[in-house]
Amino acid sequence: MSASDPGSSHIKEWVLDRETEYRFELDPGSSLAIRLLKGFAEVFGAELAEGKYYLFGHECKAAVFTWQGCTIEMSFATVAHVTGTPSTEYVSDETPMYAYANVHLALEKMRVRALSVHQGSPLPPGPDAEVDSGPPRVLVLGPENSGKTSVCKILTNYAVRAGQGWTPIYVNTDPSEGGWTIPGTISAVPVTASLGTSSPASPLGSAATSAPTILSSNALLPLVYWYGHPEIKRNPLLMDRLIRNLGENVVERHDLDPEGRASGIIVDTPSSFASSPSSTSADHRQTLIRACVDAFRINVILVVGHEKLNVEVQRAYGSRMTVVKIPKSGGVVELDVQYRQRIHAQQIYTYMYGQVVSPPRGLSASVIGDADFDGRLAPSSSVIPFGELTFLRIGEKSMAPSSALPIGATRTVNEMHPIQLDPASPGSGLLNAIVALLAPPVHPEETERYDEEVLDLQVSGFLAITNVDVPNRKLTILSPGPGSFSGRTATIGSFEWSEP
Ligand SMILES: Nc1ncnc2c1ncn2[C@@H]1O[C@H](COP(=O)(O)OP(=O)(O)OP(=O)(O)O)[C@@H](O)[C@H]1O
Q: Which stretches make up the Clp1 P-loop domain (predicted)?
């Protein structure tokens, strides 16, 4: 490994030996363009094309890994007289990529066998030639900052790169992650092309929510449910129900597409599934893991670098499915609360205004040729009368979970109960709230309705309420595009809109 500086203070070249990775952490305001000059390289499993610039911004932390060795060139942006070189950058030859690649190979075997079974072909020879364990349906568990999302991305990207036409379904059950939309959601998407990394605001690639991205070949159409909060402990019962709803949809899709089913499912989880913060009881943790196992018919559990959790999961599930402990990467960055809050705000802003990563000086759009570089969007602001949209909150505004109530105490409002909000009331909490616009019921003609039906509705988009004009009974709503909200229902959570 060597580093050289070919003259400009903003361009650096790194020669990476085989099986090493270049890790970087960007500061606020700085961006970085990476170009592969020679060899082969990948970012979280997504292969880099030779000669193409890849942009990274918004405090992105990532690594360029190479199996065979490569030369990469970095161009750094300078913003407000601060040289935009990453605050941390180094090359490491200690990576867990061998272990991850082995897991990928085992999952690949399961896919091939599942497809053979579906097509009625003889099972490939091997020690368990007679066994069909089904396609890989993988649950990834691990504590905070263990690299779960990165592992899920690597395994998904390796599957789509395998050249077999696999379309694994990536499921994000971590509401603090944001996935393809905004934080507070859980979602699933069939992945057909590598998931890119350019900004933590879109950690799993871009969703097809806008004209520019819908045209790009790998824009994704996620199925989304709104939980509304970043932490599981706010309402574990709701989380359980949403996971089961998401699972039902994913399994239904697979039932309709047996060929696609062979590609399998990869489920990313929140860190609170692995460790109990004081107010998330161990019971809830177990219940939510079980909800995932049941909902997605999990047959493989990967535990990222946590001995105690591995033992616990082995005990609970080891007799029914494969439980494997995989190493944590030394490159995973400890993300603090302030960083996570900045990224949440950035994700919500990106949802409305699109993603713009400033390219390093001297690199123009035509040189970069990357849609991620300027994905600016123009949201629509409209004024609507109070009655046009129905606003709901699930459970009380601040409510300790049932498990935290004194023994014998019952609450008057259930955690799952939808409460209608009056925009005219000062305590509605609607000003500057982010709300999820729910999809209409699938069978509106059905007469049999139930109270908690809204909990089972998917999300069709998100709105920000930027003004509440009580005297004139009007609301100003920011939405990604123009449209009528008449007769629709929107649910509030705990996320707020803030103009940057
Ligand atoms: N090998 C690596 N080199 C550099 N950065 C990395 C590497 N692996 C992961 N990261 C970064 O570390 C951060 C945390 O990783 P990741 O999101 O995968 O962990 P997690 O366990 O899913 O996090 P959470 O605590 O939110 O559940 C991310 O910003 C990610 O991009």
A: 142-354
Reported as a single tens digit per residue, the pLDDT across 87-141 is: 788 999 999 999 999 999 999 999 999 998 888 877 766 666 555 678 999 999 9
Binding site residues for ATP, as ranges?
A: 21, 61, 145-150
Place of tokens 């993300």: 335
- 97-119 vs 148-161: helix axis angle to the nearest 10? 50
Phi and psi at 488, nearest 5°, equal -90, 165
Give the ipTM.
0.98
Helix, strand, coil in percent for the chain, rounding step 5? 25, 30, 45
Identify the structural domains of the chain with CATH numbers, from first to last.
2-95+360-376 (2.60.120.1030), 97-326 (3.40.50.300), 380-400+412-496 (2.40.30.330)
Among 145, 280, 288, 339, the mutation site with the greatest number of ligand 1 atoms within 8 A of its Cβ is 145
How many whole angstroms from 151 Cα to the centroid of ligand 1?
Answer: 9
Per DSSP bridges, beta strands 474-479 and 169-172 are unpaired
What are the DSSP E strand ranges found in 330-426?
354-356, 374-376, 380-385, 389-394, 418-420
Q: Distance, CA 145 to ligand 1 centroid (Å)?
A: 6
Residue 310 in tokens: 């591995």
Alpha-carbon distance 483 to 75, whole Å? 41
Query: Which DSSP category does 434 fall into?
Result: E
